[in-house]
Each structure stands twice: as C-alpha cells, then as structure tokens.
Request: fold
Amino acid sequence: MNGSSEIRGFYKLSVEERMNLVRELTGLSDEEAGVISKTGGLPVDVADRMVENVIGGITIPMGIATNFRINGKDYLVPMALEEPSVVAAASNAAKMARSKGGFTVTNTGPVMIGQIQVVGAPNPQQAVRVLERRKQEVLKAANEQDPVLVSLGGGAKDMTAKVVKSTRGPMVVAELLVNTGDAMGANAVNTMAEAVAPLIEEQTGGEVFLRIISNLADRRLVRARATFDKKAMGGDEAVDGVLCAYAFADADAHRCATHNKGIMNGVIAVAIACGQDTRALEAGAHSYASRSGSYKPLTTWERNSEGDLVGTLEMPMAVGLVGGAARTHPAAKAAVKILGVKTAIELAEVMGAVGLAQNFAALRALATEGIQAGHMKLHARSMAITAGAEGKLVDAIAAKMIEEKKIRFDRAKEILAELRKS
Ligand code: NAD
Reply:
C-alpha cells in the first residue's frame, strides 16, 4: 500500500468514502472496487451495521444438498462455501443413508454455559460451597436480565462452581447453565454473567474478572446416527475401508484433524448459509473432540449384523434462529426458509446429520477411489479460472487437463495461451 495504515476516524466515513480511501491507498481498479462494492443480497446499509469499517461484501456460492431425510422429514439443505465437491458429496451420502431410513438425530436441549471467574477468594473451597448453597439468588438475578427468554421457558436454570488450578494460583469459577431457547445465546448469557458478578463477589469475597460464555457447549449436543447401505457404497471392501480410515483417525491426531475437518465442511457450510456464528461452532467442535485429553474423532463407525456401515456423530451445536445474522442477513433468512426449520434445535439436528453425511462421503471416497477423482472436474475448472480463463474457455481447458491427467496451473496457462492464439 502507498501510505500508513494508521487512519484516524476511518470508522466515521461512509461506506463509499472508505472505499475511495482504500482505493487511493492500494491502487484498486474500478472493476476490483466494483466487485467488492456489490453486496448482492445484503443491502449495504445492513452490512454497514453488522460489522465495522465496511467497504463492501464478498459473495460465496450457495448450493442445495438433496436427498436428506432426517427424523422422518425431508429437507433441502442450503450450503454456502467456496470448496468444490462438498455439496455433491453430501447429497450422495444422504442418498445412501436414505434407503436405510435416513438420519436419526437427538439433542440435549439448548443449554449454554456462562463462566464467571473469581480471583483472590480467601478460601476457594469454601467459596464454592457458598456459591452452591446460595445459587438461587444468583439465578434470580440472572433471569431478571431477560424476561423475554424466561417467558419463553428459557433462562438460567442452574449454576455449578469449581476451583480451577492455574499458573496464578487457584481461581473460583461459577458456571451459569442457561437454556437459550431459539437463540445461540452468547449475548443473552454474557449479559447475565455480567449482571451477577457483584453478587458473586459478595458471596465469595473475591474479585470477578471474566464474565463470558463458554464455546465448549457440551450441554448443547446433537447426536446423529445413520446406516449406509453396503451395496450402494461399494460392498464389503468399502465398508472395511471406512472402518480402517476411522481407526486411523482414532489413533492419530494428524489424521483426526482432517477427519473432523471433513465433518465441519458440512456443518459450517449450512452454518454460513443460515447466518450462524461459525467460529463458535468450530471452537465447540474441536474443544469437544479434545475432551478426553487427546484429540479424537467426532464420529464413530461400525459394521452392523447385516454388514452395513453405521455411523454416529456427537458434537456441540450452538446455533440460533433469533439474534445474530440469522435475523439480519436477508439471504440467511431465505436459506432458513428453504431448510424449513422452525426451532434452533431442529437446525442443530439438521447440521449434525449433514456433518455425519459429509464424514461418510469423505471416508468412503478416501478408502475407495481416492478423493481426487471426485474433485478433478471442479478442481480443473477452478484451476482454469485461476489461470485467467473466462466463459467457454474454462470448460475447454478443464476438459483438456482431465484428458491429459495433468491438472496443473502451468498447464492451464499453456492451454489458455494456445486456445487464445487459435
Ligand atoms: P440476541 O441477544 O440478539 O438474541 C437473543 C435474545 O432474543 C434473547 O436474549 C431473548 O431476549 C430474545 N428472544 C426472542 N425470542 C426468543 C426465542 N424464541 N428464544 C430465545 N430468545 C429469544 O442474540 P444471542 O443469540 O444471545 O447472541 C448471538 C450473537 O452473539 C451472535 O451474533 C454471536 O456471533 C455473538 N457473540 C458470540 C460470542 C461467542 O463467544 N460465541 C461472544 C459474543 C457475541
């Protein structure tokens, strides 16, 4: 950039003024600025109120995964992401589960944890006992913050307390358990945690520092299960392949990271489409995967007595339909309508099913033909676009690279040059 990144009052400018300034500093062309300025289905004034220092937006594709049958109901699943093959893989996996009844998903209810950290309590163990004895006072104070949530049957339902050993000595941590209903609940829980802090200081004799939601949402789990037809998935050998892949992930963290990443391909794509907090979901998933002290798969795989493959998934799923972008982003609202979910729990259950489907698809592909065969066509197309191709040239270059079995950037450039010459 030409100049300093220290820009006073950048936030006070209009979206257009900010973009003009960024253009001056970075040499963005009319065309480049134009694509960022087009915010698609998101009105620019809404974008400007969602985050800070807005200059525009970025659109990513939304596809629809078909064939999903979850708890006896059919769904068209909107998935928004930039990665090829994921939507096709989910649809294909859902088809193989469908013939065996589809996905069965249960949940533990929408309970989030708000942590209140107390430092310097004169007697930490005694403080824990006082907090437990006087928790009704704290719950009452917490619930006074959110009469709407309470009127809907939610609110702070319980509180636990513990002593946490830390490098700065023992700390007392109170944990509010809040039923957040159809909200993801971060704002609701944080507001409660802040409000009860003075009362907790009084009860413990210590000083409160942090008052914040935990994204390890292990009181808000979904459990999904599905049977995948042995014949449809490629026979005994394919079932063995998936079991072998699962055993590898269970035994090795480097493999397990990619195993769980495959699950999140599905979960996060639905989350983006439906305006969810994807960082909260990722944090929840990976911290839950590590709960035993070693990093483990979020799914399990086994063979049933008929020889079919049975998968289960268990993971936190903190999602909401009120609050956050699910309410403010018009495209997210439309995606929720396509999905047809009526409650946050139903959305969480669908996302659990999609996560399981995605894991199945990836393991099956890896254990049989390898992942690249499925990726090849889309990969070749994006390679052609990266090399500068447009319109019909994209398909022509992709087809040639597939034929030559050489899907490489340098080759895409060469073919593009040849085609342009001719
Ligand atoms: P919110 O505060 O906008 O909405 C929740 C409120 O809506 C409730 O408190 C309740 O008063 C009301 N409500 C109306 N109908 C309801 C219903 N049927 N069920 C439940 N509540 C109902 O949103 P939120 O869900 O509390 O917070 C979500 C936002 O917080 C997200 O945008 C997230 O990104 C952000 N956030 C996340 C973190 C984190 O660590 N994950 C931290 C801070 C903020």
About this structure: The longest strand covers residues 155-166.
